[in-house]
Amino acid sequence: MRFTRQASAALVALLTLPACSQSGDAAAGPAHPDTSGKGTPVAASGADAGAPGIGDSDFPLDGNGGYDVGHYGVTIGYTPSTKHLDGVTTIDATATQRLSRFNLDLSGLEVSEATVDGAKAGFSREGDELTVTPPTPLADGARFTVKITYAGQPKPVKDPSNLGTYGFIPTTDGAFVASEPAGSKTWFPNNDHPADKATFDFQITVPQGLTALANGELTGKKAAPGGRTTFTWRETHPMATYLATATLGKFDLRQGKTAGGIPNLAAVDPAYRNALGKLYRVSGEVTDYWSKLFGPYPFSSTGGVVDNYSAGYALENQTKPMYGGFDPDTSIIAHELAHQWFGDSVSIKRWKDLWLNEGFATYAEWLWSEHTGGATADTMFRRQYAVKNDPVWKYPPGRAKPDDLFNQSVYRRGAMTLQAVRRAVGDQTFFTLLRTWVADHKYGNATTPEFIALAEKLSGKQLDSLFDSWLFQPSRPES
Ligand code: TRP
Ligand code: ZN
Fold it and tell me: pLDDT 10s digit of each residue in the chain, 479 long?
């Protein structure tokens, strides 16, 4: 969602086809091209085609060009015994150029139908690109709704570098859904890049006895045909697609409010029953403390989910950080909840700036330690800085590498960068900088040069050589 201009009502009316076109066969006519997945070029001219990538040069096919998504409606039914998913995703978007056709990201799964503003649209597949051809080109600025009906077994992403497996991962009782960086396209079609944030509605149908957990607030739970239950969730704040979850299975829940009054929901797989109380309590304490330090909590609720998938890692899913197969300690809870401000509310615009997420969340672990009477952030900094042969000195964290995005340098040297800034500008300016950063880019996107500019503005200091040596040089900074 990038809040661009709106189409006039007349334009929208012109582009909305009569209902009769809905009955058209997807195979009929040139606007209804091949659906075999072979990627036969569609009939529309290439001139007004939306780009197959959003413009992140490190990931040329992630996201798409030509439109901005405002809202996703993700409706899925999932059967753990067969690992089969049925989905209908409705996307409300605004064209940012004239569009004869446009792309969505979708990996695997079989598409049975595409409509644009209710009229049957053509579609084709090539790799992870789903190209949709509306019956009539969309005007620049037009608001439109695309609906994709699909089904299949989501295929988890096996990351060859340093992430392990992520995406929609089957568990013994359901699924663990953690999609950073580009796994959400394995379970619903979308504009899969953090530069295009949008609000979400989820409608998730599961066998009776299971619970489905998605972002935001539970808005309904009702019986569905076939002895199933439908859970509806709503995330009303803009969210990056990689933060979407639809984690489902058996869960024990604990619900209430933090001492500061923020709704809090903790959920654990029954195998982690003993972790529930601590997860609930610590998540509440951390959320309240970060709200004081970083500024008001940006979302409608906090909490956490522990599932029985042994990922060994956690993900900061918006409003519902998820811990994969372990009882999380306070430090990792502090990390994932700091991401609600750094990463989830203020999101990156390009993956190379990932230190803005991971460096900040790691620094927050140090701040939690400092807050609770453990080692100070400066002590943590000194300990790590003392290790002269640490591989992080060879990896400049300010430019996360596409084939090694989540390198330790992005986390630890990123955090050290913030301590170096704190030393240079002093505590008062430093914490003002964090709060101003969060306030200035709330619910939006930001880049490293913008952070550097803000640090210089608030401190009145020339900080380019500090940032250059900490973020961009393949060597250990002087101090
Ligand atoms: N962002 C996570 C963190 O807090 C790490 C991570 C990246 C991750 N991709 C993931 C975790 C996928 C689970 C699944 O550091
Ligand atoms: Zn993190």
Answer: 543 333 333 333 333 333 333 333 333 333 333 333 333 334 444 689 999 999 999 999 999 999 999 999 999 999 999 999 999 999 999 999 999 999 999 999 999 999 999 999 999 999 999 999 999 999 999 999 999 999 999 999 997 667 789 999 999 999 999 999 999 999 999 999 999 999 999 999 999 999 999 999 999 999 999 999 999 999 999 999 999 999 999 999 999 999 999 999 999 999 999 999 999 999 999 999 999 999 999 999 999 999 999 988 999 999 999 999 999 999 999 999 999 999 999 999 999 999 999 999 999 999 999 999 999 999 999 999 999 999 999 999 999 999 999 999 999 999 999 999 999 999 999 999 999 999 999 999 999 999 999 999 999 999 999 999 999 999 999 97
What are the structure tokens assigned to 33, written together?
């091209």
pTM of the entire predicted model: 0.91
SS3 assignment for 57-75: CCCCCCCCCCEEEEEEEEE
For ligand 1, atom 2: residue with the closest CA: 315
Q: Is the CB–ligand 1 distance for residue 272 below 6 Å? A: no
**Residue 67 is encoded by which pair of tokens?**
């439109």
What spacing in Å lies between the alpha carbon of 180 and ligand 1's midpoint?
Answer: 6
Q: State the DSSP code for 32.
A: S
Residue 421 alpha carbon to ligand 2 centre in Å: 20
What is the C-alpha separation between 8 and 11, in angstroms, rounded? 5
Contacts of 432 (CB under 8 A, 6+ apart): 458
201 lines ligand 1 (CB under 6 A): no
Ligand 1 centroid to Cα of residue 190, in Å, is: 20
Q: Going by CA atoms, what residue is nearest to atom 1 of ligand 1?
A: 315
| Length reported for the chain | 479
